[in-house]
Design a protein that fits this description.
This protein has 6 helices and no strands. It is an all-alpha fold. It has 2 domains: about 40 residues; about 70 residues, Cytochrome Bc1 Complex, Chain D, domain 2, CATH 1.10.760.
Length: about 150
């Protein structure tokens, strides 16, 4: 009986020690942030390139490979315009036709403050439609039997 009680007290002591360490860590973090208010501000500066450039800055192969995009004509414009606001994964997981990409870009311009893509608009849409267009499904077409009959 005493052995069981001793184990419970030891477990409770360990639990309180972990809780105390967690509490101390939280208070130290709050103290640090209070004395260093700029600690959570991002130091990254993004340069929004002008839309009237005909071929934006060409990116090196390593940058393109790290982005996750397919390396094809127009990829630099896609990386420089799309990844300013969201990750490349958000683009690459979607599959849309040219019209679908056009509608998505228009929606982003009207509701999400996407800037005018200028001369790069067509190149970006062409790249997205070619490399991230709808995939052909391996499923058969729906049956179209119109002669229905009653089951008994």
């Amino acid at each position: 009986m005493q052995e069981n009680f001793r184990k419970q007290i030891t477990s409770l002591g360990r639990l309180l020690m972990v809780f105390g360490l967690l509490l101390v860590t939280v208070f130290m973090g709050i103290f640090y942030l209070k004395n260093n208010p700029d600690a959570l501000k991002s130091s990254e500066v993004y340069e929004v390139l002008p839309a009237d450039e005909s071929e934006m800055v060409l990116l090196d192969a390593q940058t393109i490979a790290q982005s996750g995009f397919i390396n094809d004509e127009g990829v630099s414009g896609v990386i420089q315009n799309c990844t300013q606001c969201h990750s490349a994964k958000l683009v690459t997981q979607n599959r849309m036709s040219k019209e679908g990409w056009e509608a998505t870009i228009t929606w982003m311009q009207e509701t999400q403050n996407l800037w005018d893509l200028g001369a790069n608009h067509g190149k970006i849409v062409a790249y997205l439609a070619k490399n991230y267009g709808p995939e052909r499904k391996g499923r058969r077409q729906n049956l179209t039997n119109e002669d229905w009959y009653e089951l008994e």
